[in-house]
Amino acid sequence: MTLETTLTRPAPVADWVTIADLHKNPFPIYRKLREEAPVHWVPEVGRFMVTSYEACHLIENDQDTFSANEAGSLMKRAMGHSMLRKDDPEHDVERKSYGSVLRPKAIKETWNAIFEQNSETFLARLKAAGPGADLIEEYAAPYAAENLRLIMGFHNATQEDMQRWSQTMINGTGNYADDPEVWAASKRSYDEVDDAIDEVLPYLLKNPDGSLLSGLASMPIPMEAIRANMKMTIGGGLNEPRDVIGVAVWALLSNPTQLEQVKADPARFAIAFEEAVRWVAPIGMYPREATKDTVLEGIRLPKGARLGVVIGAANRDPKIFADPDSFNINREKKPHLAFGGGNHFCAGTWVARASVATVALPQLFGQLPNLRLDPTREAVDAGWVFRGMTSLPVIWDK
Ligand code: HEM
Question: Where residue 132 sits, what CATH number does that domain have?
Fold first, then answer.
C-alpha cells in the first residue's frame, strides 16, 4: 500500500438517499451525509455529492481539476453550450461580453428605478387579489420575470413568456428520466427564445439601451454563444430572486422578533436577504467533473467523476455556521456559498441584492399592513437542486 492509499479512502456509498426525500426536505439528509464524510457516491443521483463547506469551496477555486464542461450535460441539450459549462479562457471571453450591465453602477443609474416601478405594479396585483392570495404567484414570480425581461432586453416578449421559457428549459436540464414531453416543451422554448433574439437584435442595434442583448448586439461573440448564454440567464436569473423573496418573507413572518428588528431598521433587509440565501440556497447543487484522478478532503475520486457541488449543504456546515439550521439575522457574519465562487461566481448577485433586499422586501412589508402567514393554508417549501416556496398564502389588514 502506498502512503496515499493509507491516508485516503474511497467515497462511502449513500444508497439510502432518494430523490423524493431530497425534494421534500434535503437538510436532514445533508447533515447525516456531512457527519459521515465530505463526499459520497449517491447511486440514485448518479453523482458524487459534495456536502462540506471546505470541499465545495476547494472545487469552486480549482477549475483545472474540477471542470464545469461536463460531458453529456443535460443543460447543454436544453439550453445550448453556455459560459456556465465552459472553463477559462473560453468562459472568460463570454463572461466579459456581459460588460457592466449587471454591475452596481448600472443598477444605481438604470435598474433600481425600474425594479421599484415593477414592484409597485405587482404589489397592486397582489392587493387586488386580496388577503389569502399567493405571494409567489401574484407578486414574486411576475416581479422577478419582468425585471429579467427588461434587463435582458426582450422587448418583444412578456413576463409570462419569460416564466414559461425559464421553467420548461430548467425542466429539460433536470430531465434525467428522458421524458419526451419534457424535451418537447423545452425545445419549443429553445426555438421561441432563438426567434425572439433574431427579431430583437436588429431593433436594439438601431435603438440601443442598457440591456444585455443591446450590449451583445455589437460584440464579436458568435451567435451560438449569445443564444446559449441568453437561455442560461433566463434559467438562472428568474427563479432564484423569486425563491429568495418567498423564503425571506416566510422566514421573517415565522420569526416575529427578527421581523420587528428589520422593520425598526430597514438597512437590515440586506442582512435578512443574505441569511435567507444562506439558510435555503436557491441553487442547491450544481455539477462539475473531475479532469484527473484526485483526492478531495481525503476522498479518492477517479478521472471523469461527476460531482454535485451541494452548496445548499455547505451553507449549513456547522464547522462554519453555528446552529446552522436556524434562520438568524443576528448570526456572526461569514461568507456563504449561495452565489457560487471562483470564475463562475454569479453574475447577477448585485441584481438579486438590489431587486430583493433594496426594493421588494421593504415595499412588501411597508405597504401591506400587518402582513402575516394565512393561518388557514399551509406555506410549502420544496426542491433541492432548486429550492424555494411553491406556495405562500398571506393575509394583511386592508
Ligand atoms: C438570489 C439569486 C441568485 C442566486 C442564489 C444565484 C446563484 C448562482 C450560482 C450558484 C451560480 C454559479 C453556478 C455554477 O458555478 O455552476 C450562478 C451563476 C450565474 N448567475 Fe446567478 N444567481 C442568482 C441570481 C441571478 C440573476 C438575477 C442573474 C441575471 C440577471 C444571474 C445570472 C447568472 C449568470 C449569468 C451566471 C453564470 C456566471 C458564469 O458562468 O460566469 N443570477 N448564479
Answer: 1.10.630.10
* Residues in contact with ligand 1 (CB, 6 Å cut-off): 83-84, 95, 102, 148, 151, 233, 236-237, 240-241, 244, 277, 282-283, 286, 338-340, 344, 346-348, 351-352
Cα 315 to Cα 321: distance, rounded to the nearest angstrom = 8
pLDDT of residue 1: 52
- pLDDT tens for 176-234 read 888 999 999 999 999 999 999 999 999 999 999 999 999 998 888 999 999 999 999 99
User: Whose C-alpha lies nearest to ligand 1, atom 32?
Assistant: 348
Q: How far is Cα 144 from Cα 235, in angstroms, rounded to an integer?
A: 12
> pLDDT tens across 41-66, in order?
999 999 999 999 999 999 999 999 99
What is the widest separation between alpha-carbon atoms in the chain? 73
What is the per-residue burial (b if ≥16 Cβ within 10 Å, else e) of 331-351?
beeeebbbbbbebbebbbbbb
- DSSP annotation of 256 reads H
> Quick check: 280 pLDDT over 80?
yes
| Structural domain count, the chain | 1
Beta bridge pairs of residue 249: none
